[in-house]
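Anyone up for a design puzzle?
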């Protein structure tokens, strides 16, 4: 029985020594915090985004379309341009390039001129809606960059358009 108790005694002594050693390495700060209930500091939510940034309209808009041989803005085109102007007005650093396009009907020279008139009509309407003229550039591609290739009125009507490309001018925003 003695031989049986000796290993148990040694085991108990080893366990108490480990416990004593562990207790000795615990600092008084740890003990104090262990004896007091944990105080959780309220987690502060991140500050909300500035109101003017959070409420800016997105700069995501598609093309506007025209009738055959026309640079007159359709009512739905005016509505889209109003959304474009609403998105651009509060962003003084944003610049927009408007490209005018035509279908393949007509001569190259005629189509380039018509594409220019289409882009100019869109620009003039944006200026009327309060976007500064110097923030808008225009160009014409005529029939050279069709949205769709092929022939027939359904294809041609999708090629009679003006498209918008928006960029941010860092030098303009920083004053450099």
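Challenge accepted. My sequence:
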């Amino acid at each position: 029985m003695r031989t049986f108790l000796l290993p148990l005694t040694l085991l108990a002594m080893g366990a108490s020594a480990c416990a004593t050693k562990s207790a000795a390495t615990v600092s008084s700060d740890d003990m104090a915090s262990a004896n007091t209930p944990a105080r959780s500091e309220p987690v502060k939510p991140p500050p909300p985004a500035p109101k003017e940034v959070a409420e800016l309209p997105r700069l995501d808009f598609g093309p506007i379309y025209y009738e055959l041989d026309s640079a007159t803005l359709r009512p739905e085109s005016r509505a889209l341009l109003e959304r474009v102007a609403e998105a651009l007005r509060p962003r003084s650093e944003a610049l927009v390039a408007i490209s005018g396009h035509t279908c393949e009907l007509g001569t190259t020279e005629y189509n380039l001129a018509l594409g220019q008139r289409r882009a100019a009509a869109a620009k003039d309407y944006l200026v009327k809606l309060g976007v500064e003229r110097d923030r808008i550039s225009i160009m014409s591609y005529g029939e050279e960059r069709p949205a769709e290739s092929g022939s027939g009125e359904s294809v041609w009507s999708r090629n009679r358009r003006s498209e918008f490309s928006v960029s941010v001018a860092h030098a303009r925003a920083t004053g450099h």
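A detail worth pointing out: Helices lie at 2-25, 28-35, 51-54, 75-88, 108-128, 153-159, 170-174.
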